[in-house]
Design brief:
Blueprint: H1 2-18, H2 28-34, H3 38-48, H4 52-57, E1 58-62, H5 68-72, E2 83-89, E3 97-102, H6 109-119, E4 132-138, E5 141-147, H7 149-159, E6 162-163
């Protein structure tokens, strides 16, 4: 009789632990809810990185369909997105570009991020070049940033998205 009670309690313990909710940051559906406004999210990432001057001297605007290629220095992108915002300096010699993309449900964020990574041109500007770029995902969101190594690292750390290898 004791063995049966022990086995029943053991199963109850195992199923109880297995059925507990996961960490809110690890559930893609909950992550989707965390980023409702892309423009605000992009602003918060830049603020968190301590780069307020980028917001003051830059253009924060929506990326219309077909314009994402310009952001990364490519002619065009094959990947589709539902919504996107970019931050780029106004007429300046500061080589910096940042974009935050929301993909449609069912679209593969890793595939879209891979295309950004493959087509990004650090020399998209005539007189200057960015040092590096970073592409990362979180749920159905893709972050792209290129600029100086310090800028890119600070924004990547502040965003806490999963880097694409």
């Amino acid at each position: 009789m004791k063995q049966v009670v022990i086995i029943v309690l053991l199963f109850a313990l195992i199923f109880g632990v297995a059925c507990q909710p996961s960490d809110p940051g690890s559930d893609p559906d909950q992550t989707e809810e965390l980023i409702e406004d892309l423009e605000q999210a992009l602003t918060e990432i830049v603020d968190e990185a301590g780069m307020h001057e980028l917001l003051e001297s830059g253009m924060l605007e929506e990326i219309k369909s077909g314009e994402a290629g310009y952001l990364i220095g490519a002619e065009s992108l094959d990947g589709l997105y539902a919504e996107a915002y970019s931050l780029q300096p106004m007429i300046n010699v500061h080589p910096f570009a940042m974009g935050l993309f929301r993909l449609e449900p069912g679209q593969d964020p890793a595939l879209f991020a891979g295309e950004l990574k493959e087509k990004a041109d650090l020399r998209k500007w005539i007189c200057v070049a960015a040092d590096t770029f970073h592409v990362a995902t979180r749920g159905q969101f893709v972050l792209f940033v290129m600029g100086s190594t310090d800028e890119v690292n600070a924004i990547a750390q502040a965003a806490a998205f999963t880097p694409v290898s």
